[in-house]
Amino acid sequence: MAALPETSDYRQLFLAGTPFLDLRSPGEFAHGAFPTARNLPLLSNEERAQVGTCYKQQGQAAAIELGHRLVSGTEQERRLAAWSEFARSHPDGCLYCWRGGLRSQTVQQWLADAGIVYPRVSGGYKALRRFLLEELERSLQRAQLVLISGRTGTGKTRVVAAVDSALDLEGLARHRGSTFGHLPEAQPSQIDFENALSIGLLQLLQRCDGPVLLEDEGRLIGRVALPENLRQRMQDAPMLVVEESLAERVEVILEDYIVDLGERYSASEGLVEGPALHRTRLLEGLDRIRKRLGGERHLAIRTQMEKAFAQQRASGDIAEHRAWISALLETYYDPMYSYQLTQRAGRILFQGRRDEVIRFARAGLSC
Prior knowledge:
Elements lengths: L5 E2 L2 H6 L4 E3 L3 H6 L5 E3 L5 H14 L1 H11 L2 H17 L4 E3 L5 H12 L6 E2 L2 H19 L2 E6 L5 H7 L3 E2 L1 H5 L16 H18 L4 E4 L4 E2 L2 E2 L2 H8 L3 E4 L3 H24 L3 H16 L1 H4 L1 H21 L5 H22 L5 E5 L1 H11 L3
Parallel strand pairs: 1-5, 2-3, 2-4, 6-8, 6-11, 7-8, 11-12
Antiparallel strand pairs: 9-10
Helix pairs in contact: 3-4, 7-10, 8-17, 12-13, 12-16, 13-15, 15-16
């Protein structure tokens, strides 16, 4: 019988955005996965636990026999149908399990018996994950990083979106970076974020040999942390500094955190629950920085925020939000930015308004 195909060209798999059929248990998948992977497990969490216990107590042969009993008959047919549909829908894909061993070899053989020859990733998820960790280090050694910096509300993320040589860290983290930056959808796990980051850098460096632009971020984006090697590189990276008036910055915050974020909550949670959750999340964000604001200032801004949401709920008018946004920028975010800027060692390559920074980046730093 001819050997079934397998590949260890991990770089090409990620450069191509290969669809992955992930055969690990749901618990393993939740712990860490890749952006293009779909979890169609051979064994459920409970079944995997049973097989693991059997392996420890009775050995490999007994565990394999138990696995075949658990996934047999109509249940095997149902799972095989799902794997077959994935393979037919993604003929350029690959399958894997944790180490590229018995689980993926079993499914690969079952597919072959059904007339579908589908490649397997040698070494499985573990080898792919190790490659991405090592590749992130190689990418950071190779890449020339340039930070997009500027005060809160200057629209740095808009610069990222407008330049083809930029990588959107906040997009990968599914968070807007500030204490108010929670989105309706959940953030990825730390491992998922690191995987997506390494893949993003790998793909960007493949198509672009110029500098890589990143928004200036702190240690955390929501609850996910920047890898330490990336943070160290960012410390002394040169910067493009976006400068906008307070009035313009207030409008950016209003658009991003009231209009756009409100629409996201309404789309996710409904027209009744969505606005209520939006209000709650922003008030919770304000309460998290109460100590740094001071009790009196916190109370004043909270009162303004509650008044603004009441006005918005009553009439749809969002103008009242400008008051608390302006107060928060001037008394909290601007002093914090001034301090953070002193912690960066990189030189300023250019500073100007957002449209000027975009033109500069496209002219001299783009692919």
